[in-house]
Amino acid sequence: MASIASKLRQLQSKACQATQFASKHGEVYYKQMIEQNKEHIQEPATVETCNRLAKQLFYTRLASVPGRREAFRKEVDQVKQAWKNRKDVKVEELGVAALFGLECFAWYCAGEIVGRGFTFTGYKV
Prior knowledge:
The protein is an all-alpha fold. The chain is 78% helix and 0% strand. The chain contains four helices and no strands. The chain is flat. GO terms for molecular function: proton transmembrane transporter activity.
């Protein structure tokens, strides 16, 4: 129980440090970010403007679905064609495919570890 209390005190201390840092430097960072990105700001900043932009984003993304679906179909066709010609595949291409698969698996494992709270067993201490 003492180790949990010790970890809680450490966590509280780090939270206080983060809060102090944010309160000291947050306003400067905010002003700098706004200044650098002011061409993206819509005036007037009203609820109606925000709702209009949200609708524009949603329907623009929705309108892009057919193009993305077609691109996906082309990629699937390329994979099918590569599978048909698998006897002609070079060792270098197999190596790249193996490394890509390994990288995907590593990112999956990293995501699982992060999702469990950076534990390997699933139990938090």
